[in-house]
């Protein structure tokens, strides 16, 4: 995400800059999860509590949703850049918030509460769960700190 510093007559859209980053962060993290853990490693599917056909269908629906989010997010991002309304720092902070939020939601809600799937089967889950959720929390915290710092800078301008 290139730095799009506004000229004196352009106003940065802080809310949209953050939200477009969140959307793209969610979409990219969903793509990483889908490609790496569902396809390459074949550790799980989005929904593992049914037949292999339903598991594959659930992966396809997740993949379709992530692609729609990516396309929509990139159009939104391009529009903000075109209007010189993008804050790159806020977009990056939002990206980390979205990626970490997706990871943590997946690790806590999908894995533990709803039990749609586990990270991996046939192994002791605690180390996997800890790494998965700590990584998500670290991304979320980094995003929150970056957004806070960027908003502070924007207010000083």
Summed up, what is this model?
The chain is built from 4 helices and no strands. The chain is mainly α.
Supply database-style keywords.
single chain, 157 residues, mainly alpha, 4 helices, 74% helix
Folded structure, characterized:
- The protein has 157 residues and is an all-alpha fold.
- 74% of the residues lie in helices and 0% in strands.
- It has four helices and no strands.
- The chain has helices at 14-40, 52-82, 88-113, 125-156.
- The radius of gyration is 18 Å and the shape is elongated.
- The protein starts with 13 loop residues before the first helix and ends with a helix.
Tally of individual helices: 4
Shape: elongated
User: What is the N-to-C succession of helices and strands?
Assistant: HHHH
Mean pLDDT: 93
> Can you count the beta strands?
0
> Percent range for helical residues?
over 70%
Largest sheet: none
Q: What secondary-structure arrangement, pairings included, does this model have?
A:
Layout: H1 14-40, H2 52-82, H3 88-113, H4 125-156
Helix pairs in contact: 1-2, 1-3, 3-4
């Amino acid at each position: 995400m290139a730095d799009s510093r506004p000229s004196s007559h352009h106003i940065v859209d802080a809310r949209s800059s953050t939200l477009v980053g969140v959307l793209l962060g969610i979409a990219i993290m969903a793509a990483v999860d889908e490609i790496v853990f569902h396809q390459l490693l074949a550790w799980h599917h989005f929904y593992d509590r049914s037949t292999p056909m339903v598991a594959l269908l659930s992966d396809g629906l997740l993949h379709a949703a992530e692609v729609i989010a990516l396309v929509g997010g990139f159009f939104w991002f391009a529009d903000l850049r075109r209007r010189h309304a993008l804050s790159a720092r806020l977009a990056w902070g939002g990206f980390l918030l979205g990626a970490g939020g997706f990871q943590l939601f997946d690790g806590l809600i999908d894995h533990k509460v709803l039990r749609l799937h586990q990270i991996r089967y046939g192994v002791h889950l605690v180390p996997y769960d800890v790494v998965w959720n700590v990584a998500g929390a670290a991304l979320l915290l980094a995003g929150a700190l970056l957004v806070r710092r960027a908003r502070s800078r924007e207010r000083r301008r």
